[in-house]
Here is the input.
Amino acid sequence: MRRVASWTMALGLIVIVACVGAGVTLAQTSPDQTSPDLASPSASPAKEISVGIKQAPPFAFKLQDGSWSGLSIDLWQKIAGRLNLRFHYVEVPAVQDQIDGVVSGRFDAAMAAITVTADREKAVDFTQPFFTTGLGIATPLNNQPSWRPVLHALTSFGFLQAVLALVIISVVVGVLIWMFERRHNDDFGGGVAKGLFSSMWWSTIAATQASTGDFGPRTVPGRVLAALWMMGSIIAIAVFTAGVTSVLTVTQMEGMVQGESDLAAVRVGAVQSSSTASYLDSTQIRHQDFASIQQGLNALRAGKIDALVHDKPLLGWLVGQNYATSLQVLDAAFDQQQYAIALPLGSPLRKSLDVALLQTIESDWWKQAVSQYLGEK
Here is the structure.
């Protein structure tokens, strides 16, 4: 009996040890203890996400076979490869359609050249930015002679200031000549009104270097003042003429628009419902809206507007591809902007996309891709 009891106890111990070992094994393989890799979207390979996309060359454009290419497309495919994401593109015509699709849940993500703005940040989440740029200005390349630059120069504040200064000085000189000459020269006598009119008329003629004949001051103080006025008016008018000529020459050679500060005085175009249009509204620059950037460029080439404002890399690429002989993009850029991927609020993709995106844009591959599409290093 004792031997049976001993065997029974030994068997019980073996069973207990086996159960404990199985429990440890189960604990190690419990699905609640997932690895960081399994916590990524690649743990659900069956779900295919939808990506809202639009034409925004060189960041996203369609090839002849219907496939997509571009800087943003290459970036997304690189990120999707890192995360083992299955996806398909859904094309929409405008950025606002991309944002609306993300908000409604139609898209799991949207990307191409979507600018991060405060209003959009309220509606969607954005990943880390992958490209920093600014607004650019496209203008006609071959500037034809026009009355608009002349009118702009002649109505500028500086021009009016110069004219007003000459008029005031001429009036002061005329009054002084009248005071010196009214009792000694019949040309400036005959009452206050007649004398002042004659002296101011002489002052104007002297300033323009026209011949006055025998009509002029005869007293010593009057002639000294007249000499000073004639010499001073020569210098003043020469400087004034040189300034106006310089303005008109530069305007004709470089165009009416040379930077952001010139936009308020010309006809400006922008793409409707874009971040560019919002910026122009905030700076109170009047502008004509177009449904697409191509329509705006066509209007610029046709002379219907004087400048088109849009994201500089997109402007540069389109002008270089299709309008190189008629339009140009100015070197200046303003209103810094950042492109990012738009996601629904609280999207579970955001963290993993951020990590994969940063890893990608910090690589040499990204530098080569930017250089390939934009020529930037």
